[in-house]
Amino acid sequence: MSGALTFTPAGIYCPAGDFYIDPWKPVSRALITHGHADHARWGMESYLATDIAAPVMRHRLGDVSIDTIGYGERLQIGGATVSFHPAGHVPGSAQIRVEVEGEVWVASGDYKMVDDGLSTPFEPVKCHHFITESTFGLPVFRWQDQAVIAAQINDWWAGCAAAGKTAFLGCYALGKAQRLMSMLNPDIGPILTHTAIENTNAVMRTQGIALPDTVQAGPDLNPKDHRGAIVLAPPSALGSAWARKFGAQENAFASGWMALRGIRRRRAGDRGFVISDHADWSDLLSAITGTGAENIYVTHGYTEIFTRYLNDQGWNAQVLQTEFGGEDAEDEAA
Fold first, then answer.
1. 230-252 pLDDT, tens per residue?
2. What angle do CA 176, 277, 196 make, to 5 degrees?
């Protein structure tokens, strides 16, 4: 990997601009695609992110120096021209375009091409070199329409409520939780949220991001006052002492990994809903084709299999070893 961007032990580096993209070790200047912990890490001297992503990053990272940029705005950093473009992953997520002497690279971070109604939809960016994730880079991963999944979740919730059970839905605190809330039918019952999710909701609401009414399921909440509720919580909180105080309940997980039967069994949930904020197999290929790039660099996920397929199809593809974690790394209680 050489040219406008290079690969170093600290992360993806631009020599012409002296900055890193989503570095995993402390550096002087970090350009961040989005606020999940495997991409936005603590310890950088300065950060640059979209104006939509920055508030949640401040909430998660504390008192750090974050400059902001709007989608499509061009910024000259040394010898590099930089711009951020919608990635569709979570609100504020971006692909970062870097141009040096006519050579264009795009580091996509995490992305999905489905318009979830909450995040700014993905936009393909023409480039010579494209860095892509492959979290779900196998043909088995093909997502159903969001409306179909919404109907499945609401039917399950209504069934739980009718049986006198609380529905617990495991989901990631940033992005997935807010997307799911927007898919729920509030006529079924109250929507309760784990503190980690509600704290993120509060930040987004101050930005003017429209979310449905929710109730924080804190230590003082009496479950008997919220019969027929659905509770959204990080997967790690399901089955905890906090969750058990709700009494009779059913647990479900909302993740792309629910497409694999073995993972559904290991999760030991009552239900699994297949929904992801990452691109599926078809959309990974569509996104790559849309860039027009000849050179593809594959990070985190099914890297070897996906890279082999791309090379067989005529792209010049290679694996990049990174410390990005895909969907599991998004399970944070922050």
1. 999 999 999 999 999 999 999 99
2. 25
Residue in this structure with the two tokens 């006052």, named with its chain if needed: 225
Q: What angle do CA 289, 17, 299 make, to 5 degrees?
A: 40
Strands 191-193 and 94-100: unpaired
8-state DSSP, 207: T
DSSP string, 80-127: EEEEEEE--SSTT-EEEEEEETTEEEEE--S---S--SSSPPP-----
The order of strands in the sheet holding 230-233 is 215-216, 191-193, 230-233, 166-170, 249-254, 271-273
Report the top-level CATH class of 146-273: alpha beta
More confident residue, 266 or 183: 183
Q: Give me the chain's average pLDDT, please.
A: 94
Domain ranges, ordered by start, for the chain? 6-140+277-330, 146-273
Instruction: Give the tokens for residue 129.
Output: 């070199």
CA distances from 65 to 3, 68, 72, 88, 92 (A): 28, 10, 22, 25, 17
Which amino acid, 153?
Answer: I
Joined tokens for residue 222? 């009496």
The closest of 267, 213, 217, 284 to 245, measured between CA atoms, is 217
Q: What is the Cα–Cα distance from 46 to 27, expressed in whole angstroms?
A: 8
Statement: the pTM of the whole predicted model exceeds 0.70: yes
Q: What's the first-to-final CA gap in the chain, in angstroms? A: 34
Pairing of strands 11-14, 19-21: antiparallel
- What CATH number labels 6-140+277-330? 3.60.15.10
Count of residues in the chain: 334
